[in-house]
Specification:
Radius of gyration: 22 Å
Number of strands: 15
Number of helices: 12
Helix content: 25-40%
Largest sheet: 7 strands, antiparallel
Structural class: alpha+beta
Distance between the termini: 59 Å
Amino acid sequence: MVRLLLVLACTLNAADSFIGSAACAPCHKRQFDSQSKTGHAHALAKSADHAQRAQWPLATTEARRAPNFRFRFDSLTARIDNGADVLAVPMEWAFGAGAQAVTFVSKADDKHHIEHYLTYYSKLRSFGPTPGQSKLKPANLAEAAGLLYRNADSQACFDCHSTGNELGVRCEACHGPGATHAASAGKTSIINPAKMTAGALNDYCGKCHRPPASDPAKIDWNFAWNVRHQPVYLSQSKCFIKSEGKLSCLTCHGPHEPLAQQAAHYDAKCVSCHQTKPKSCGPTNCANCHMPQVSPEPPLRFANHWIGVYKGGAALRPLR
């Protein structure tokens, strides 16, 4: 019986496997073409293939790290020296589409990956310390090169930035493995997040835009970096609570479209519920006041999804 169950499990797993977004395109061309242009789709790339590769000032960058480490680039290899020895670390993986930054990761050995010390910041058009590393004090070249992660820990990064064996967040990241669905010509259903309740959907997005909205007790609301966890912040807002389960990530963000940049797009979402606005609000850009930008570390900026009424420069928690 155990052998039979194992064989059956293997058969099911083989049938319901990842097939890649290109296999979805023939039937879902509009969604595929649009989603291919999103930041999600380019969340992970080989560094050599990254869309911003030509913008990285590799040849002209020379950076320092206390007490005596110097960084230079030889094409896509970071070279760190201390005046006596040199350590060369290939820039294997590029995490992030580059809307704000691109961080580099490489395999260090069979048990570890290294998160490089230098990240590329798009607004600055230059390299700078990777968030969380600037206050560390390296004692040797290996520590100066970046932060070492065990494979079990770094795998979580790859899981959220890739889909099966495909780079980037593509169709099956949200809809699940598509082999059975494709083989049945669409007769076998797959996951459809649009059919989830708002709370369930926000938790679903929260698997990567972590932590999920159902766990606000673990959040330090005074720690600016936590603003990146959009679902849990949205769950605290009165807009979500009073919507009685209607307000979700998809209310404002089309799952197959690039992130909208126009204030009018978001204003239209707001006025669909708030049909009358106080005169003090002005004509446009509700988010400027009610979802203020938070900069946990320049030049990075994130919109606070705890929608509310904020006072002055206090952008972490609303008055109401």
